[in-house]
UniProtKB/TrEMBL annotation:
<dbReference type="Pfam" id="PF01551">
    <property type="entry name" value="Peptidase_M23"/>
</dbReference>
<keyword id="KW-0812">Transmembrane</keyword>
<dbReference type="InterPro" id="IPR050570">
    <property type="entry name" value="Cell_wall_metabolism_enzyme"/>
</dbReference>
<dbReference type="InterPro" id="IPR011055">
    <property type="entry name" value="Dup_hybrid_motif"/>
</dbReference>
<feature type="domain" description="M23ase beta-sheet core">
    <location>
        <begin position="343"/>
        <end position="439"/>
    </location>
</feature>
<keyword id="KW-0472">Membrane</keyword>
<keyword id="KW-0862">Zinc</keyword>
<dbReference type="GO" id="GO:0006508">
    <property type="term" value="P:proteolysis"/>
</dbReference>
<keyword id="KW-1133">Transmembrane helix</keyword>
<dbReference type="Pfam" id="PF04225">
    <property type="entry name" value="LysM_OapA"/>
</dbReference>
<keyword id="KW-0645">Protease</keyword>
<keyword id="KW-0378">Hydrolase</keyword>
<dbReference type="GO" id="GO:0042834">
    <property type="term" value="F:peptidoglycan binding"/>
</dbReference>
<feature type="domain" description="Opacity-associated protein A LysM-like">
    <location>
        <begin position="118"/>
        <end position="170"/>
    </location>
</feature>
<dbReference type="InterPro" id="IPR007340">
    <property type="entry name" value="LysM_Opacity-associatedA"/>
</dbReference>
<feature type="domain" description="Csd3-like second N-terminal">
    <location>
        <begin position="210"/>
        <end position="330"/>
    </location>
</feature>
<dbReference type="GO" id="GO:0046872">
    <property type="term" value="F:metal ion binding"/>
</dbReference>
C-alpha cells in the first residue's frame, strides 16, 4: 500500500511536486520522440559526437512546449475555432502553404493616428512605473493622475513590463494620445477628446493560413517530422493526438507516414504563432489512423476519428469486477499496518485471492515486478500523462512483460496480498502528470464520440478534411517492404 517514493513526495511542498511532475512528463515525452540510443549507434556512428548537443537542443525545445501542450491537448480541449474554409488545390511540392480565404476585419491604429503626427516612444525599463515613464516623456504628475483615472476601471495600464513601449503624442505640453501595445493582437489607445481621456482597446484578428506537411519515417517521428518542417511544438501536439493508438518510441516502422494540416497565424504578413492541427494522419505498420479536429456547437474542440469516435480512450472506473471498496482515497488515513497517519493515494478493492485484475485503459506496461510495500505490482502508462498502478497481486498474467501493450479490460494479474497488506485486495492508483488522483472521482480524459446532434455537421467537416488530406498529398510513397 505504500512506497518509499510516496513518503518522499509527502515531504516536498506542493509546488515542488508539481515541478517534478512536469519534469516527469517532459522526460516521458522526450523518450517518446527521440530515437533510441541503440538505433542511433548502429545506424550512423558519425553522428555520435553531434548527438548530445542535438538532443540537448531538442530537450530544451520540448521543455518549452511541453507544458503548453498539456494545457492544450492532454487535458480537455476547449476554445473557439474559426470556420473551415475551402482551399485551393495544393501546389506540387512537399510542403504547401495555402492562404485561407477568411475575411479579416482589422481595425488598425491608423484610425487613431495620421502620418504627420509626431509620436515619441519610450521603452519600459526595469524599475520603471507609469510616473517615471511619464516624466521621461516630459509630462507631469497631473498627466499621470489623469491617465490613471481614465484607466482606473479597465486597469489597462496596471501591468506594464520592461521591454514594452508606450508611445506618446504630445502637442505643446498637452498629452493628446497614448498608445500601448499589449501584444501583437491588442493595443490600448487613450486619447484626449474634449477635456476627457477616452480609452479604447483595439483588437486585431490574425490571418489564418493553413499549412500541410507530410513525410515518411526513416528514423523517428521527431527527426523526420522536423526534417519535413514541423516545429517541435507541432510534433508534440501530433504525438499527443495519436499517442493513444501509436507507440512512437517502440512501435513505429521505417516507411510509416505522417500528414498534418494545421493553422498558422499571421499579422501584417508576419507569422505570430502556430494554431491548431485541424487534421492529421499517421500510417503505422500499414494501419491508418486519422484525426479530425471538430468544434461542437458549445465551442469545445476535440479530435475524432473520421467516423466520429474520440481519439481518446476511456478508463474503466474499477479494474476488478464484483469488488467492494475497503479503503478509499484519503490523504490523512491511519495506515492499518504501520499504524500512523499516511496518505492513502489510491483505492483498495477487497476481493478474494485470484480475482482477475483488468487494465483500466489501453496502454503499455512500464513496470512489472515487486515494488516495496506494493508487493507484486504493475504500472501501465496510458497516453503521455496518465499512469495506473495495480498492487498486492498474487500473480501476474504470465503472457505480459514490461513493455507489453495492453487493451482496456485485459486481465493483467490476480488479486492477492503480496507486500504490505492485511488481506487480499487490489490497491489501485491513478496518476495524472505524476500526481495521484482519486480513481473514483477523477475526470477521465474525454472519450465520448461526437454527439448525435452534431453528427451531420461533423461528417461534413470530416469529409472535407479527409478530402484535403488526399488533395494535398504529393508524395508517391515507396512501400517499405
Ligand atoms: Zn491501498
Amino acid at each position: 500500500m505504500l512506497t518509499l517514493l510516496k513518503g518522499i513526495q509527502n515531504r516536498f511542498p506542493t509546488v515542488h511536486i508539481a515541478a517534478v511532475s512536469i519534469c516527469g512528463v517532459i522526460l516521458s515525452i522526450t523518450l517518446l520522440l527521440l530515437p533510441s540510443a541503440e538505433v542511433s549507434a548502429t545506424k550512423d556512428t558519425s553522428l555520435t559526437t553531434e548527438r548530445p548537443t542535438q538532443n540537448a537542443v531538442q530537450k530544451e525545445l520540448i521543455e518549452q512546449s511541453a507544458e503548453r501542450i498539456h494545457n492544450d491537448l492532454v487535458l480537455n480541449i476547449s476554445g473557439s475555432e474559426s470556420a473551415f474554409t475551402p482551399l485551393v488545390p495544393a501546389a506540387n511540392k512537399n510542403t504547401t502553404q495555402i492562404k485561407a480565404t477568411l475575411p479579416t476585419n482589422n481595425p488598425t491604429i491608423s484610425t487613431y493616428e495620421t502620418p504627420d503626427e509626431n509620436w515619441v516612444s519610450y521603452t519600459v525599463q526595469k524599475n520603471d512605473n507609469l510616473t517615471s515613464l511619464f516624466l521621461r516623456a516630459g509630462l507631469n504628475a497631473t498627466d499621470v493622475y489623469n491617465i490613471s483615472q481614465a484607466t482606473l476601471e479597465g486597469k489597462e495600464l496596471n501591468q506594464i513590463y520592461p521591454g514594452e513601449a508606450l508611445a506618446f503624442l504630445i502637442e505643446g505640453s498637452v498629452l493628446k494620445k497614448l498608445k500601448y501595445e499589449v501584444n501583437p493582437l491588442r493595443t490600448i489607445v487613450i486619447q484626449l477628446l474634449g477635456s476627457d481621456y477616452v480609452v479604447n482597446a483595439i483588437e486585431r484578428t490574425p490571418d489564418t493560413h493553413e499549412r500541410y506537411i507530410e513525410g515518411v519515417i526513416n528514423n523517428s517521428l521527431f527527426v523526420d517530422a522536423e526534417h519535413a518542417g514541423l516545429s517541435n511544438n507541432m510534433i508534440m501536439r501530433f504525438a499527443a493526438i495519436f499517442g493513444w493508438d501509436v507507440d512512437f518510441s517502440q512501435g513505429i516502422r521505417q516507411g510509416d507516414r505522417f500528414r498534418v494540416i494545421y493553422n498558422e497565424q499571421f499579422l501584417d504578413g508576419k507569422k505570430i504563432k502556430d494554431g491548431h492541427i485541424v487534421a492529421a494522419q499517421f500510417v503505422n505498420n500499414g494501419e491508418t489512423f486519422t484525426a479530425i479536429r471538430y468544434t461542437d456547437s458549445d465551442g469545445s474542440s476535440r479530435y475524432y476519428t473520421p467516423d466520429g469516435h474520440s481519439m481518446r480512450k476511456a478508463f474503466l472506473r474499477m479494474p476488478v469486477d464484483f469488488a467492494r471498496i475497503s479503503s478509499g482515497f484519503n490523504l490523512s488515513r491511519k495506515h492499518p499496518v504501520l499504524n500512523r497517519i499516511r496518505a492513502h493515494k489510491g483505492v483498495d478493492y477487497a476481493a478474494s485471492t485470484g480475482t482477475p485484475i483488468k487494465a483500466s485503459g489501453d496502454g503499455k506496461i512500464i513496470w512489472k515486478g515487486t515494488k516495496g510495500g506494493y508487493g507484486r505490482a504493475i504500472i501501465i502508462q496510458h497516453g503521455s500523462n496518465i499512469t495506473t498502478l495495480y498492487a498486492h497481486m498474487s500473480k501476474y498474467n504470465s503472457k505480459l512483460q514490461q513493455g507489453s501493450r495492453v487493451k482496456q479490460g485485459q486481465v493483467i494479474g490476480y488479486v492477492g496480498k503480496s507486500g504490505l497488506a492485511t488481506g487480499p485486495h487490489l490497491h489501485y492508483e491513478f496518476r495524472v502528470n505524476g500526481a495521484h488522483k482519486n480513481p473514483m472521482t477523477v475526470k477521465f480524459p474525454q472519450a465520448s464520440p461526437v454527439a448525435k446532434r452534431e453528427l451531420v455537421a461533423f461528417q461534413a467537416v470530416s469529409d472535407q478534411m479527409q478530402a484535403q488530406l488526399e488533395t494535398y498529398s504529393t508524395i508517391k510513397y515507396a512501400r517499405a517492404e
